[in-house]
Amino acid sequence: MINLGDLSGEIDRLVGEIQLQTEARAASASLALETLASIGDHWPQLQKRIEQSRTSWLPAEILDSPDAVYPAPPTLSDYTAIAVDGSQIAPDRHGIADFYLIQTGGIILHYGQNSAARRFRDAAIFVGSDEDSLDGRPERKLANHRSNMEFQQLKRAIEMNRNPASPTIGMVDGTLVLWMLEEAERASGVAALLDLLEFGRVNICPIIGYISSPGSREVVTALRLQRCPFEASLCQKFCPNEKGSQKRNAPCGGLEGATDSHLFASRLKAGERSAVFGSRSKVVLDCYSQQDKIKFFYLRTHREIVRIEVPSWVADDPKMLETIHSVCLDQAEKGGGYPVALTEAHECAVVTAEDRRSLNRVLEKRLASLKMPLTVTRKAISKRLPRV
After folding, report:
1. What is the pLDDT of residue 99?
2. Which percentage of the chain shows pLDDT scores above 90?
3. Given a cut of 80, is residue 182 above it in pLDDT?
C-alpha cells in the first residue's frame, strides 16, 4: 500500500506541473483557434504546402475548409449497429504451458419496428507452435492477431445480420489507421482490415473507428504549416536546431501544447462535427487502397470530443456521412456518453481474472489425469500462497 503522507511533497509538485500544463494547453488551443480562423477560403494553398512539406511531424490532409462546422442531423429511428471487441490471456512464462487465448465478442442492436439485441462470442486457444511462441515482440504480435480476429468476426456478424431495409453500421473501438504494426506484420494486419472495409463497401455497410478522448494532433500540426513563414516547409533545412523543448522557439511554435480535441472543444457545440480530414500516416499512404484510405472528423457528443474514422468511400458520400454522424450521436446518448454497442461488445469479449483461474484449473486437472508434470515456476506459486 502506498504511504501517501510520504508523497505529500511530490503530490504538490505534480499539482503544480498539471497547473502549468493546463495553462500552456489553453494558450496553445487559443493560438490554434486563431490560426484556424485565418485560413478561410485559402485552404487549397495550405493543402499544397502540406504535400510539399518535409517535416518530422504528421499533418492532416485538408479536404475542405478546416473551420467548417456541420450541425447534428435528424436522429435515425431505424438502424442496426454491430460492434465487436476482443480480449486475451497473454502467454505467461511462469505458467504451466506455452499458450495464449483470444476471445472476441460483440452485439447486434436493431432499432426500429422490430428492435432486438443479440450477443455473441468466440474464443480460441493457440499453442506455442501455432505462432512460434510469438517470438520477437509478443505483445505486438498478439495485439495484431487479436485485431485480425476482431475484423473477421465483425465481417461475419455483418454478413449474417445486415438489414437491407435500413442502415447497418459496423463499429470498431479504436483506430482504423494501423500505424502500430511493424513491417513484418503489416501484410496480414492491413489485409484483414481492408477485407472488412471492402466487404462493407460492396454491401453498403459503413465501417467506423470510434476513438474516445483522442490524443492525435494532425489538424493542429497542419496549422503549424499555416504559420510557417518560409516558401516551403522544410524543417531540416530552415529550423534544424528547433527540436524537443526548443520547438516553441521556431516560427511555427506555440501550438505544441494543444491536441485536435482541445482545438475542436473550443470550436464545436454538442452534436456538431468538424470538416473531414485525411490521414497521411505512412501505413495508410503505402498500404491502403485508394478507396479505403482513412479519413476522419471530430464530433462533439454531449460528454466529450471524439474522433470518428471512416474509409474514403464513406467520407465521399454525404448521405452516408450524415448517417454516421447521426448514429454516433445516438449511440453515445444511449450509452451515457460512450456508444452502447461498443460497451456491450466489450462486456461480451472481456476475459476476467476468474476466467483465467478457471482455465488454469481445467488445464491442471487434464494434465494431472495424464500424469503429466506441472511446470509452474516458484514465482507463480508464491503469488498463489501469500506468506504473511
Report:
1. 86
2. 62
3. no
CA-angle at 206, arms to 294 and 289, nearest 5°: 35
Percent of the chain with pLDDT over 70: 88
SS3 assignment, position 195: helix
pTM: 0.89
Confidence at residue 35, expressed as pLDDT on a 0 to 100 scale: 93
**How remote is the C-alpha of 77 from its chain's centroid?**
27
* DSSP bridge pairs for 123: 103
Distances (CA, A) of 279 to 37, 299, 323: 22, 17, 21
C-alpha cell belonging to residue 258: 494543444
Longest Cα–Cα distance in the chain: 77
Residue 248 near residue 240 (C-beta atoms within 8 A): no
Which residue type sits at 27? A
Cα(197)–Cα(69) distance, integer angstroms? 27
Contact 359, 89 (CB under 8 A): yes
Could you tell me how far CA 8 lies from the centroid of its own chain? 36
pLDDT at 279 over 90: yes
CA atoms lying within 13 Å on the CB side of residue 192:
20
Cell of 381: 506459486
CA pair distance 217, 54, nearest whole angstrom: 17
Rg of the chain in Å (alpha carbons)? 24
- Indicate left, alpha or beta for 278 from its phi (over 0: left) and psi (-120 to 50: alpha): beta
Residues 341 and 335: their CA atoms lie apart, in Å, by 8
User: Which letter does DSSP use for residue 73 in this model?
Assistant: P
Helix/strand/coil (H/E/C) assignment for every residue in 93-125: CCCCCCEEEEEEEEEEEEECCCCEEEEEEEEEE
CA-closest candidate to residue 331, choices 105, 69, 111, 87 = 111
Cα 341 from Cα 363, distance rounded (Å): 33
Residues 89-146: pLDDT tens digits? 888 777 777 889 999 999 999 999 889 999 999 999 988 655 554 555 667 788 888 9
Quote the cell numbers at residue 149.
480476429
Region for residue 227 given its phi and psi (left: phi exceeds 0; alpha: psi -120 to 50; beta: otherwise): alpha
The pLDDT score that the predictor gives to residue 242 is 56
With 0-12 CB in 10 A as exposed, 13-18 as middle and 19+ as buried, what is 55? middle
